[in-house]
Amino acid sequence: MDQSFLLMLSNLLHLHNSIDPTTSLISSPTSTSSSPTSLLTSSSAAPLLFFTIASVLSYIASSRPSSSSSSSSSPAASDYSVSAFRALSTEHIWSLEAPLRDAQWRSLYGLSYPVFTTVVDKLKPHIALSNLSLPSDYAVAMVLSRLTHGFSAKSLAARYSLEPYLISKITNMVTRLLATKLYPEFIKIPVSRRRLIETTQAFEELTSLPNMCGAIDGSPIRLHKQNLSGNYKCRYGYNAVQLEVVADHKKIFWDVCVKAPGGTDDAAHFRESLLYNRLTSGDIVWDKVINVRGHPVRPYIVGDWCYPLLSFLLTPFSPNGMGTPAQNLFDGMLMKGRSVVVEAIGLLKGRWKILQDLNVGLNHVPQTIVACCVLHNLCQIAREPEPEPWKDPEENGMPPRVLDSEKSFYYFGESLRQALADDLHQRLSSR
User: Fold this and answer.
1) What does the alpha-carbon distance between residue 246 and residue 342 come to, in Å, rounded to a whole number?
2) Cα 221 vs. chain centroid, distance in angstroms?
3) C-alpha torsion sign, points 390, 393, 398, 403
4) Where are the alpha helices (DSSP H) in 135-249?
5) CA–CA separation, 419 and 327 (whole Å)
6) 369-418 tens-digit pLDDT
7) Are 222 and 358 in contact (CB under 8 A)?
8) Considering the chain, what percentage of its residues have pLDDT values greater than 90?
9) What is the C-alpha R_g of the chain?
């Protein structure tokens, strides 16, 4: 008999027992109340309801194509069915050794089983409020399989035997929860002294530059087959939205912004971000100040020459090595620190392949990208194996002009950068 039909019958038995636990549909051999007559004359309506539904299901099952023909048209469908997920996530999962179990889980859902259960546990209370007809773990697994493999709603609907509109609805719900409910927990600006010290010391070990607390970069996220007007065409010739992230030494994002179409340059996108507004207004207070050649140096982030030079954002002196020896040495160390954010973006797109060609509605693009950033941080915190990173083309462009409102930040950043370069050159040349 068809396995899915058996599964439906099993579910109906459980349904019957919950409706009318006093009447058994499967009796023991010695029972005298198992005849159709006795069942149909029961005081409860549940047996009649059961047999009515079972008859309909039997007709449907008999009219379906044979398993051999269906398997030939969709050989991988069984890997994503409800019964396959249930088998893998219940009794079968505990019979596997942890490395094999987690490797199998990563191949399907992009992360290990323990990290998967963490995501489910954190989202379950919020999913429960939505009255979703699917169990929370099944809904999360379905969305993760879409994010990690880049499946469209239509292709995933065939695998999960659901309608495409329902796949889109569940995807939008889960990514929205990740981007709102889990964002504050897993994407945080390092303001605590303990985290600041850990981050700045790690960057100093990497670059020999003191008080660096992050690296910023932007990357276009390609939009799948969307005919868009305006400024969506990015510098590589395809329609995209612009992602901006700041990463620490562990390649963990501590700020994410998706506010601009792909044709927006990095400097303009940064100036539109909440992070820029908080830094220029003094809303973020980094309580760690050191003195370098008479200059008070607060924690700062680094970026390439596409970003404006500011007191809290240092950029290279020259994109082509035309500075003094001290300046060129500084530039090399700064770009070494910046490399962590380039690697982090590569891991993000390598781990969640949907970001290589994003196939969701435009209104849901930002939350999907942010959700993937949250999941990336979860994986980095849990020290999940790093996938083969996605390679973006090398950037090029002219340094942005300084706005009138930024001149005081620029002049301070200019003197600060030179002091750091001279100090670095003196320290390293005297070794």
Assistant:
1) 10
2) 13
3) negative
4) 136-149, 153-160, 164-180, 183-186, 193-207
5) 10
6) 999 999 999 999 999 999 999 998 877 777 899 999 999 999 999 999 99
7) yes
8) 60
9) 28
